[in-house]
Structures are given as C-alpha cells and as structure tokens.
Automatic annotation (TrEMBL):
Domain Glucosamine/galactosamine-6-phosphate isomerase: 19-239
Pfam families documented for this protein: Glucosamine_iso
Lineage of source species: Bacteria, Bacillati, Actinomycetota, Actinomycetes, Micrococcales
Gene name as annotated: pgl
Name of the protein in its database record: 6-phosphogluconolactonase
Organism field: Intrasporangium calvum (strain ATCC 23552 / DSM 43043 / JCM 3097 / NBRC 12989 / NCIMB 10167 / NRRL B-3866 / 7 KIP)
Hydrolase keyword on record: yes
The entry's keywords: Hydrolase
Length: 250
C-alpha cells in the first residue's frame, strides 16, 4: 500500500529566498511541530538527516526564538540513515549534527538513538537489526516529523536510484552495500518505515537539486528512478526549498 492509497495529502511546496532562510524557517517550524506533538502525546519523535541542510537546521534550531518552550528531554531523536562508520567519525550524519549543536539543545542522551557503527557491531546487517530492535522498543507508530535531504540523483535517506536496498520489505531498516555515493556501506530506514510519519519534510537547496526536485514532484514518477518521489507524511508532506532547488517547478 502506498502513502497515496492511505489518502496522504498531496505535497506542499514552500520556496525560500536562500539556503539560510530555508534552514531558519524550517527550524522555527520544527519548534512548533515539536510543541504540538508534546501537547498531544507528551513526547515528540523526530528523524534527523545528514547533508549540509540536515546540520544547518540544527544550527538554526540552537538560536531560534521559542526553542525554550520545547521540553527537549521529551524529544526522541532518530536518523533516517547513517553511514556505517565508527561513532564520532567526521563523515557520520550524527557527528555532523552533533557539531552543528545537537548536544546543546538539552536532549536526554538516552533518547538520542544513533545507528550502531563498526565500533559496536560487525556488519551493516547487524547494525540494521540492532536499530530495528531499538525502533521496535522506543519508536512511535508514526514519527512526528521526518526530515529528509535529497541528493542530486534523487536519493533519499540511503535509498538510491536503481539500488536493491529499495526493495527491502517487512522490515524498518536495511543494510546498504555498494552505495553509489561514498562511503559504500550504510544503514537506512526502508520505504515502509519512512512512510510511518505524520509530517515528512524534504529540505533541499541548490541548483544541482532542481531536476531531482522537479522529477520527485512530477505525478507518476517511479520511486525506483527517483526515491525522493515516494515518502509521504500521513498528515503533511512539505518540500521546503530555496529558489534554486525549486527552479524546475512550474
Ligand atoms: O548520507 C549522505 O550521503 C548524505 O547524508 C546525503 O544523503 C544528503 O543528506 C543529501 O545528499 C542532501 O545533502 P544536502 O543537504 O547537502 O543537499
């Protein structure tokens, strides 16, 4: 069953004048979304991402007005994908988020769920299994906010065009080998788990992303070709773009 079959709303597009204003506006939006989620269920669950914007939103978050209204100790943090590298490696998504100021938000470290690396488990498969177990134990049926970056090739999380990892079903996580973008070994949420989010936000900036954005939003695009075309939030899907990334949209 696809998100569309479940009646998920059509994606909404918001275009910002530049990358910084996009990150700042997304951070402000995230504060409100976390507050709303905490108001409903006590705890908010957010899925973070790597890439430049994935860290820029954290940097903006550390300075955004109203952030102190969020009870950060009741925010549970996940990652949509991770590079299979040891904890603290500069190329890990979580390290980049840490360096952007994640730890200064006042989160409860026991609720920050990092994907195990080769310093903890032997293989990407073991890491994917361990992460799936953590998700089963602590993950909400639906994440409150799922944040995704998009590659120029249209990849999302570590699900790449024409890559077998896209085919994983019946599991929330998948080990990825031979990623076309280095490093070759990664762990990713599957399409099925990416579909379990109330709000899904794509954060995309730069002219090199314009074709991927246009393709992802074109009706009928096959996710095998453009993985970013697939994830939909059950309540909202937002494409938060800068002008350059939105240049291919009519
Ligand atoms: O694991 C990776 O290789 C990156 O995390 C990658 O998936 C990134 O999120 C996108 O390419 C968007 O990156 P930007 O935000 O820099 O455009």
């Amino acid at each position: 069953m696809t998100a569309d079959d479940r009646g998920a709303p059509e994606p909404a597009v918001v275009i910002h004048p530049g990358k910084q204003s996009l990150a700042d506006a997304a951070a402000a939006r995230l504060v409100v979304a976390l507050l709303d989620a905490q108001g409903v269920s006590g705890e908010a669950q957010v899925v973070l991402t790597g890439g430049s914007l994935g860290s820029e939103i954290i940097r903006s978050l550390t300075g955004v007005l109203g952030r102190s209204a969020v009870d950060w100790r009741r925010v549970r943090v996940w990652w949509g994908d991770e590079r299979f590298l040891p904890r603290g490696h500069a190329d890990r998504n979580d390290t980049q988020n840490d360096e952007a100021g994640l730890s200064s938000l006042g989160l409860d470290a026991t609720k920050v769920h990092r994907v195990p690396g080769p310093d903890e488990v032997d293989t990407p498969e073991a890491s994917a299994d361990a992460y799936a177990e953590t998700l089963a134990r602590h993950g909400a049926a639906a994440f409150d906010v799922l944040i995704l970056g998009v590659g120029p090739d249209g990849h999302v999380a570590s699900l790449f065009p024409h890559h077998d990892a896209q085919r994983a079903t019946g599991t929330p996580t998948v080990a990825v080998h031979h990623s076309p973008k280095p490093p070759p070994e990664r762990v990713s949420l599957t399409f099925e788990r990416l579909a379990q989010a109330r709000e899904t936000w794509f954060l995309v900036a730069g002219e090199d992303k314009a074709d991927a954005v246009a393709a992802a939003l074109r009706p009928g695009t096959d996710r095998w070709d453009v993985p970013a075309s697939a994830p939909r939030g059950t309540e909202a899907t937002r494409w938060l773009l800068d002008t350059a990334a939105g240049a291919g949209l009519s």
